[in-house]
Design brief:
Layout lengths: L2 H20 L5 H24 L13 H17 L5 H23 L28 H6 L3 H18 L1 H8 L10 H15 L1
Helix pairs in contact: 1-2, 1-4, 2-4, 3-4
């Protein structure tokens, strides 16, 4: 799954949760935090596997639940100590959706006796070996992506940008009226005041 796919898998459910449960949009800080969490396994594993060859695969160390679990607990504890306890579950959600997003097809469409030969083994690495991934530079990896995919990404980025800039857009659309402007509510209040004075 490409980086934007991982972010979408994490962000869209969170967006729905905020809209339905809280009737507001996610904060920018929470959105950026979720973005980083949803990319973190690849940001760790792929450079260590592709560039410096310290890992056997771009889905190994940080994709393992044996590593993910203590990392999520650690971040949750640190967030709670800083008075931001709500960021712990958010980080865990973003991180774990990435891990599951990489292996869900194998989990669904491959029989358990064949999981050892797939990336499902990354969930318990290093207890089970993972398929070796090709070594390539990051730039070359993204250059191989079809232009049509980047077109889809561009549309998604525009929509996300509009959502991210929602406070500014709302402020422009609902800008405070200029001094001296009157509304129907103002007229109604003035009429009521006049009647009160007359009585």
């Amino acid at each position: 799954m490409m980086p934007w796919g991982h972010f979408a898998v994490a962000f869209l459910p969170y967006l729905a949760y905020r809209l339905v449960g809280h009737r507001d949009l996610p904060s920018r800080r929470a959105t950026v935090f979720l973005l980083v969490a949803s990319q973190l396994p690849d940001l760790i594993d792929k450079p260590l596997a592709w560039s410096v060859h310290l890992l056997p695969s771009g889905r190994s160390l940080a994709h393992s639940l044996l590593v993910a679990a203590p990392v999520v607990v650690l971040v949750s504890v640190l967030a709670a100590r800083r008075g931001r306890a709500e960021l712990g579950p958010l980080f865990g959600f973003g991180y774990l959706t990435h891990v599951v997003g990489d292996v869900y097809r194998a989990l669904l469409y491959t029989s358990p006796d064949q999981w050892a030969g797939t990336y499902v083994a990354s969930l318990v690495w290093p207890l089970a070996p993972v398929p070796a991934s090709e070594t390539t530079a990051f730039l070359h990896y993204f250059l191989r992506v079809s232009p049509a995919r980047y077109g889809q990404v561009a549309v998604g980025l525009v929509l996300f940008g509009l959502l991210f800039a929602a406070p500014e857009i709302r402020a422009v659309l609902e800008r405070r009226r200029l001094p001296g402007d009157t509304t129907d509510d103002d007229v109604a209040v003035r009429t009521a005041d006049h009647r009160f004075d007359a009585d």
